[in-house]
Every structure is written in C-alpha cells, then in structure tokens.
Here is the input.
Amino acid sequence: MRRWRGLDATPGDLGRTVVTIGMYDGVHRGHQALIAATVARARGMRRPALLLTFDPHPAEVIRPGSHPAILTSMDRKAELVAELGVDAMCVLPFTQEFMRLPPETFTHTVLVEHLHTAQVVVGQNFTYGHKAAGTVDTLTREGRRFGFAVEQIPLAEDRSDDDEVTISSTYIRACVAAGDMASAARALGRPHRVEGIVVRGDRRGRELGYPTANVETPPFTAIPADGVYAGHLVLRNPDGGTGSRHPAAISVGTNPTFQGSRRTVEAYLLDFDGDLYGEHVGVEFVHRLRPMAAFAGVEQLVEAMAGDVEDTRRRLGPAEPSTPPAG
Here is the structure.
C-alpha cells in the first residue's frame, strides 16, 4: 500500500481515485464496511482505493486538552486498512489553518485538485469543513459540480445480548476503559491491541519467578482498566507487520502491593524464553481475569500470579513453541 503525509506528497501518477474519509480510529466493523464498499467500487472502476485520514486527532486541535484515547496507532491503522484492500493512504496534518477550511474549499483543494476523486464513500453521519458545516448532502451537490459520485453507508450496529448499540470509536473506547474486552472485540472484529516498546522496569517480576515484558505505550493510548487479563503479546516482523503471537498473562495497573504510582502494562509470556528488550510489540487483550488488587505480602501475590497463569492457559490454550527474536 502506498502511504504519504500531506497533499504536496501525493504521487503524480496516482490517477483518479475512489476515496473514503475519516479518522478510522480502531478500524472497527463499521469502518470495515465502509472500506469494503470503497474497495469494491474501486475495483469495479479499476481505480485505486484511497483512505484519507488525519493527524493529530481533530478534537485536540478544536478543543486543546480533549485528545481522546487512541485505539490504533497510525502504523497499525495502515497495516489494518492494507489488509482490507486499500491501495493508498493519505494522512493530512490537522492544523488550525486546515480546521478553518470551508467545506467547498476542502472539496476543491483536497478531493479534486490533489486526489483526483472519481467517487467518495462515507458514513451517513459524515461531516467536514469549518465547524462541520459540510454534510453528505452538501458533498453530493459538490460532487455533481466537480464530477465525482458520493455514496453513503449506514452505521453498523452490535445487536448482541438483546441490546442494540451503534458501533463507533467512542463506544469502543468506553468498553476498553471499563475493561469490557469482549464487547470491544465484538465491535472491533478482533481483540483490542496496544503497542509500544519493551523497556526495563523494576525487574520485580523476574525476582518473583514471573519475568514480564514492560511495554511503554505512546501518549493517549487506549489502555484497558486496571486488572489482570488473558491475551497475547505480538512480535513485529522485520518489515513492521504482525509476526508471531504468544499467549500471555497481562497486568495493567500501578502494582499496588508494592505501593506503585506509575501505571504500567506488563505481559508474562507463557512458555517463552527470550530477550524482548527494545522490541516493538503489540499486547492483545482477550479476557479480563480479575481486578487489580493489593495483597498482604509477596507470598499471596505469587500465589495469585500462579492462578492468573493457569487461568490464562485455560482461556487461551497452550503456547506454541517459540523462537526468540534475532538480536
């Protein structure tokens, strides 16, 4: 997949495109429906399917200090949309100047002049331009003027447990914040993943017989509620894509037994022997096993950790044989 940042970096040989627009944070099931429609139209027209997204999140520019928790990093977003068949991804810097563009200027400058749009596929609640003044209706009118078609896709819903919920990034952030990983996974279509670099912690887990990978996540990462989870640690391939996955018991919290104050994400890999320091990894949360707790002493903590590992085995099954990463 071709990927670039800023309109001026748009490849000169791009040709006319079928475009979908949005933050696409999480690339959840609703997003997947939009992308599937975009790719299908592009294939039918023999044109590239292009995803237009923004960085940073518009909320941080419009209302500084209100940056929402992020479900997927830009690299992870690119990986996910490429797997869905997107041919190109353009990331537009969302600035104060960009925020003030009238809808018609956005349409002409971005969609017509630079991306050479033949068709736009968006959700039915799509808005754009200064103060979100542009809607699907205004975009459709501008499409008639500039020679591109517009298609709107209904919002996806989760009807599990006799409850109907519109799938959105906001809904998934709420699930993650509550530690409800089952609902988050249903809406995402896969387990929620956080990414980061394995760094050296206080090495207390090693002393207790359960060495953990201490994962340092980027700012604004959507980290689940404090607790212990069953999930996987995912290694990255040399090309940056998803590599091997290893069952893991995952702790999120401040280590209250030792009066910790810094919130961490730590993963104990089952049946793994290797050095992960400095590796870029993903941590996938599948089941919440229990809340975080302060124990009376080290013996009680170690007993609880042993139970967490066994519970993880029951939930996920045994680990496959693994090979430590090179280097």
